[in-house]
Amino acid sequence: MNAITPFDFEGRAVRVVEDDAGLPWFVALDVCECLGIVWKGAGNSGSLGALDEDEKGVVTTDTLGGQQQVAAITEPGVYKLCFRSRKPEAKRFVRWLTHDVLPALRRTGTYSLDGAEPADPPPPAMPLAPQHRADVLVSASRIFGAALRTARQMRVPPGEAMRAAYMCARRHTGVDWQEELGADLLPALAGPASEGELRRGAAMQAADEFRAAWLDGSLGLPDLPVLSNDAFAAFTDWCARTGRQRVPQYAFVAALTGVGGMLKSRHRYRIPGEPRQRDVYTFLIPLRQQHPPPGQTMENWLGECIEAWRGAAHLGNGARC
């Protein structure tokens, strides 16, 4: 994790830290206070109970008592909390997040143009009122971001992904970011990947390789539903043994479920001889193994799958959030 950056939302501090993959984590207590959510802890029965395990975690932050670990949530987790809220603060928070925080993080992140400050844009071909011009630029920024995220998910090389997103935004809005920023961007977009991009690409490739090796049986893991925490624990161990770069859990889950053949779903389960789980947990489920055998309940079958998976992966009792 990198240094924490505080952002101001209507007089309240929201602390954000980027992980080694360049993805932002938001201090959960700060987000809940901004959304008017009473803080009841980060557990399944607390304020973050609606979030999946891969949408929450912990980060290290400086406090008056020294460095402490605090609950944090991912960008998708923040959106989920906002969309579940009916309070007016939620809509303002989403706008603030998408217009101020995320653009600021991306300007200083992997894809920034080092040392280049935005210049005054030249006048557009068809003069627009300042407010309308701002709306067009916001639309272009959103389209660029959406296209870039999609290209990354499709494993498009970083330079090609940036160029495709640039052309997509220009095609749909007429905005030429090369002119707006007063810089010749295309050579930079086609240039070699940065160290951070290479690290992130290698980590995502490791997740893809683990998924393929699991499903083709070469890892000796059963082709059965598994708790996402248990799958991530096995992936972490595999990365350590093979010298591969590990991605965060939420990126690992996205890699496994983003290309077909596997889905993410939340269920209760019951392991034979143990009490029934009252909370729901996130499972990774191969599409060819979605349903229990005839005459068996989903809860009992998932409990048996967990035992089989942990035994094969030597996970003991696994990790539960």
TrEMBL record:
<protein>
    <recommendedName>
        <fullName>Bro-N domain-containing protein</fullName>
    </recommendedName>
</protein>
<dbReference type="InterPro" id="IPR003497">
    <property type="entry name" value="BRO_N_domain"/>
</dbReference>
<feature type="domain" description="Bro-N">
    <location>
        <begin position="1"/>
        <end position="109"/>
    </location>
</feature>
<dbReference type="Pfam" id="PF02498">
    <property type="entry name" value="Bro-N"/>
</dbReference>
